[in-house]
Amino acid sequence: MKKRTMSEQRKDYAATVAHPFSATATFPVKKGLVQVPLREYRRIHARIDRRIEANEDRGLAHMARQIRASADRAHRDALPADFVRRIIAGQASPLRAWREHRGMSGRALAAAARIPPSYLSNIENDKKPGTVAVLKRVAAALGVELADIA
């Protein structure tokens, strides 16, 4: 068989693409062209299309899971209006409001933060400022940032 030049191969490729009802399909690869039966060519493309669709479906499912998780976090982190009003009006310190919002007693929070309950009470009632280290432990026990309770 005579070796064909690149220009001959390109002409054959163009002719095959121009005649979609021919019995074979020719497509380029790294070192020249490959000719396969048209039925096989269509089967390969159908498989590729199915894989692309499957990956798109997986991508959409992943995006949907991320959106649901984000909405769940937003719902979990949403604060009741009464909670915010109490802090703004000065009816409760942010520390006490967060503790009550989390449903913890003073003793339970003090135990979780490893401080005496009387010290926590003094901090909540603004009788003592509390050290940064203690406030960090209290914030961690409540699951909030230090700025939220200070």
What does it look like?
There is one protein chain. The protein is mostly helical and 150 residues long. The protein has two domains: 6-74, no CATH class; 81-149, 434 Repressor (Amino-terminal Domain). The chain contains eight helices and two strands. A two-stranded antiparallel ribbon has the order 1-2. Strand 1 (24-29) and strand 2 (32-37) form a beta hairpin. The longest helix is centred in the middle third of the chain and has 40 residues, at 38-77. The radius of gyration is 34 Å and the shape is rod-shaped. The N and C termini lie far apart (86 Å). The relative contact order is 0.06.
Number of domains: 2
Morphology call: rod-shaped
The average pLDDT is 76
Largest sheet: 2 strands, antiparallel
Strand order of the largest sheet: 1-2
Beta strand count: 2
Low-confidence stretches: 15-21
Rounded to the nearest angstrom, the distance between the terminal CA atoms is 86 Å
Rg, rounded, reads 34 Å
Residues in helix, %: 55-70%
Report the order of strands and helices: HEEHHHHHHH
Which structural class should the secondary elements be placed in? mainly alpha
How large is the share of residues in beta strands?
Answer: 5-15%
The number of helical elements comes to 8
Q: What is the fold's blueprint, element by element?
A:
Elements (H helix, E strand, L loop, with lengths): L5 H13 L5 E6 L2 E6 H40 L3 H8 L5 H8 L4 H8 L3 H8 L7 H11 L3 H4 L1
Antiparallel strand pairs: 1-2
Helix pairs in contact: 3-4, 5-6, 5-7
